[in-house]
Amino acid sequence: AMNQLLEQLITSNERNIGLRLNRRSLKDELAANSEAPDFFSKENRRRIREENLRRLNAILEQRVAARTEALECVNSELESFSYSVSHDLRVPLRHIAGFTALVMQANEGKLDATSTDYLQRIALAAQRMTSLIDDLLQLSSVSHVVMRRMDFSLSDLSATVSQVLAREQPRRDVSVVIAPNMQVEGDFNLIRIVMENLLGNAWKFTSRTGQAKIEVGQHKCDGEQIYFVRDNGAGFDMKYSEKLFGAFQRMHTQSEFEGTGIGLSIVQRIVAKHEGRIWAEAEVGKGAVFYFTLGRRA
Q1: Choosing a second label site near 123 at 20 to 30 A (CA), which of 2, 62, 222, 291?
Q2: Is-contact 48 40, C-beta < 8 A?
């Protein structure tokens, strides 16, 4: 239902802007207009070709401008839509969670096992929906954050995030190896969100691995500094990798590993904001590695 609503919103925006995509390619137009009659002089044919090229370039620029305007408008309204819907959902969700808890407290010891199970499922669903709203708001807010670039240690940040994860799950025995002296330039708070998501995923998807191992490191390729987070957990099938960074896209079912399917969308948006890129490699049952760059620092 959410995807259908978003699709309707996009269609409505395109209609309101009056965007009409011409199906005829520029290549076809060039072929139809670049040739002058044979009886023209060589110089005149050259001038006609140049004029046609200029005209077609102008058409291309107009189309790009129109589609860019449409895309910006759609993205802006989608972000406003996500923000508004997320806020509007908070109040009824609080009511659901609150009254469910009151019913369970008021009837402690009186409810049969089936009724208790139903109420627990309602509370769990409300909790999951709250997490989804929080992630949606974070995804929406990333585009509006004013970047404050600074130099800092990615090694220290990764160690801090890993320590928090270890405290939250003290029974887990996870070997975390972090390369020293990884200095980056970027917005500290945004990169912290990146590492919380990537390390959090690595921690989550190694939960069923006997000897869980997570590695944070860096290497250079063609002069570009590349950072990575590697784990030996569940991994995923690379044939679905194109969906990896899409919102609400998940490689595993909720029963296997919990999550909202928005974390990697947030990560991709933050990395793009830093003029970087992110990609992944994985194999089912043999773990995954996420690579990313941060633009300026080479």
Answers
A1: 2
A2: yes
